[in-house]
Here is the input.
Amino acid sequence: MDTLLHGVLGAVACSRTGLPGGRRGPVDERGRRQFTDWTLWAALGFGLFPDIASLGIHFATDLFTGNGIRWHGIPDFVFLLYNLTHSLLGIAIGYALLVAWKRSLWLPALAWPLHVLVDVPTHGDGRFITPLFWPFSEAGFTGWSWWVFPWVFYGGWIAAGVLWLLVIVLRLSWRKPT
Ligand SMILES: [Zn+2]
Here is the structure.
């Protein structure tokens, strides 16, 4: 899916401001409601991360060198990074390291595997088929590429909108215990 949608989905599914916050929303250790929830921004970042840390590097260098955005001539190391960030092996290692470093990252860091999970059905055959079993197997699921099928693209954004709407409905239904 497009990178931005991954960020928005990660935030709604893997932050305390999103659905995991339940009816109450983000609260701190003492149960006080927070208005600045760091897990929201962390989940957004982890949702964007797999694409930014791979294709993003290529596009950023293209942009800085004045080549404009090019989909051809993508260097091999970018594909290596793409495989690393979009494979079960890469996710397992990355997630384990992140949680070992900072326990509380367990929730927002889930936006990374979620990104790849969403990519599987929304990337068709070709160079950007999700390399789930890299480096062991090139097998992959031939999905419906979001850049080919508009209904996949719009369906994703509608789903994200519905999920955020659900968050708002949940929060409105919360009554402070008296
Ligand atoms: Zn991706």
Observations:
- The pocket of zinc ion is lined by residues 50-51, 86, 115, 119 (CB under 6 Å).
